[in-house]
Batch of 3 targets.
Target 1
Amino acid sequence: MSPPADRRRSERGSYFFLSYAHSAPLGARADSDVWVGQFFDDLAEEVTRQARPVAGMRIGFFDQHIPLGADWKAALAEALGDAEVFVPLYSPGYFSRPWALGERDSFRARLVAAGSDRLTAGHLAPVLWIPIPSWEDQPEVDDALDLGRDVPEYAENGLRALCMLASYREQYQLLLSRLAGQIVHVAERRPLGPSRAPSMDEVTRPVSADPDFVVAVLAPTRDRLPAERDPSGYASSGRLWRPYGSRQELPAAEYAASTAERLGLTARTADFAQAAGLLDRRPAVLLVDPWIVAAPGSPADLASRLRGLREWVVPLVVTDDGDGQDAAGWATEVMELLHDAGRPQVKHACTMREFVDLMPALVTEARRRFLKHAPVVGFDPPPGPVPSLRDGPAVPPDLASPPADPATPRPHGEDR
């Protein structure tokens, strides 16, 4: 006999979805949310220990599981539609990040569609990750405190501090086990089953004509490529350029824009030629394809276009080491042109991994330069939040990184 429809659907789901506010990178560090990853691993391990999953049911999801070249928003919508329990990590930054709130709103909309009783049936399991200042009135925080009202260190320091510090290991393990038990109970006793979750674009505010951040692209269009260049990855507009071809579902500019959105900024993509007005008044990352200088006369034209580039426009030269057509010579020429235009230090991404890892730091650096150099008199800064470290380490710097050696004891006293 075939299993009931609800059971068949739940077999394709997952126990929980972890939602958090992405933090601005610390210097050149690509992964500033390392403790979120540590907590996810711990929670997934504890859920696995307590669970009796049906065949095919996954344990958990957080966005670091999304493949490099995937469509982030589509992947998140699918994961939100699969999860039985939504676990938001509340912090000061969570309530100012449209991306994080969009994840929560998407899951809530899915619960409403399933029936209003689902909103109070434990499918939302908030956690106090970093304490919220008393002057920031967030009613939802009280629900997060329910996890550990008998653990004063939790309300005082948040679960991240308990995760990071060995002195809080006992309290951390208690709350971890308690949260995992709640997740398992809901997922196995009151399963929702996979259902459609609205996409991020459906639940977040649309990008205005004057966004907080710009991703500009300087790449040839398909009809203006040098004769020797393979047209794969090119389109009618430079902003649709895919430097890594079929390995990326979306254009590089869209991925960069998603990175800015995850850091709390509305973002817009544009061809460099059409973005001049925006680049004069908004922080930006400029993605440059070295093949732009391959056509006769292009270097001189490019030099004039780069002259006067604002300090807050941060360039990134993008190539693909897997491309059979070597662009090293063109990349060197573009780097020299950027140096001559007043950019002594220019980043160069040679692989998709490098591109992904560099992007958060570049977005943050552009925003920092904008706040430092933009005119003050008669100038209104964009409304987006300033990348800050308020969701960053709240403990001494030597504790703010995971062990470099797998054999080194974990921060909260366990070996991996």
Target 2
Amino acid sequence: MTDPKNSTTEDLKQEAKTATADLKESARETASEAVGTVRDEAARRAENAKSGVADEVSDVASALRKAAKDMRGGSPQERTFGQIAGGLADLSDEIRNKDLGEMATQVSDFAKRNPLLFLGGAALAGFAATRFATASARRDVDDAPERRVSATSAYTGTRPNAPAVQTDKETRPDQPIGATHTGGVS
């Protein structure tokens, strides 16, 4: 004769095992879907970035072509600018038409073959990026008139567009900053 408590316990254990297996399978499917979604989003963003870089390189090539046209025909500068523009246009097409993995492999191979040239190019790119970022930051400050500080407000320690504050002490232009006139003869 079987014990009904033992049978119920076994049924509960089996149900728990089944529920656990179902939960594991559901978690695997959800994780797999999440990984796929993240991979797709990363690929989309990388493709957008790659396209943006290709557009920038193409714009630089166009500017160099225009500069070459404005120079004296047949001059060394005109030929040099034209050659650089052609090389950049080719690079832009390469960037657009290559897979990111393929480009990474080519950069890695180049770095292995020419480590000094690669490091020098990376340093040059870093310097160029820094100058670009610095120039962009300066341009943002110059374009924002509300951030400008006049000579008067810088001297008196006030902010532009700040409300005036009345004090009992009077500051005279011939006194150093921080010194105040107390009403007596100085």
Target 3
Amino acid sequence: MKPHNQSPGQNRPRDRHLFDLLELRGLTSGHRAALWAVIAIAGSMFVIETAAGHFCGSHALRADALDFLSDALLYGLSLSVLGKGIRARAGGAALKAGIMCLASAWVLGSALYHFEAPALPHAGIMGLFGALGIISNLACITILAPHTGERRVFRLYEDEKTGPDILGSSAVVVTSAAVWMLQSPWPDLLIAVLASAQLLWLAARTLRPALVAYQGSDRES
């Protein structure tokens, strides 16, 4: 399927999956309201989990907050470039990837820094906010469910995550139990490194092609 507003001559291999992300045609008012609700939930949970992770010393909780940030950016930028051309969608994709690169690198760097002097996080607070993360993701999934037939793909690559899921928050809950049973900070640090490194890799993977397409769209316009 060709990207929106793309002429036949612009159908190049580098654009094969590019800008299915942010392609939202025929968006109903109900679907738009659902997306705004998800943006509000995801944005709030990013702030809440980041603050809770700092308060209780959990890097895994801060890494899970990044997942909510990604969702809020994804849907927010999708709505902001609704109906616009490839250049705007490329810019939105590059902006999201750039923000996620910086945020993921910060959480990853913080976790690695604490490898030398790890501190035991508060397992109870970790578990509590991890459970809140699961509930929030389930709420987002429930809100979006009635609009499944209306949705377009929100992704840059075929295997990119395209919506809320509970895996990250579930991992926080399991990690909090491991921290409590072992009385060790290492489960928290290891999960944080794995989760933030994966998000950093995914963001870096999408940043370059988005920038290339953004620059290319300027030359081809």
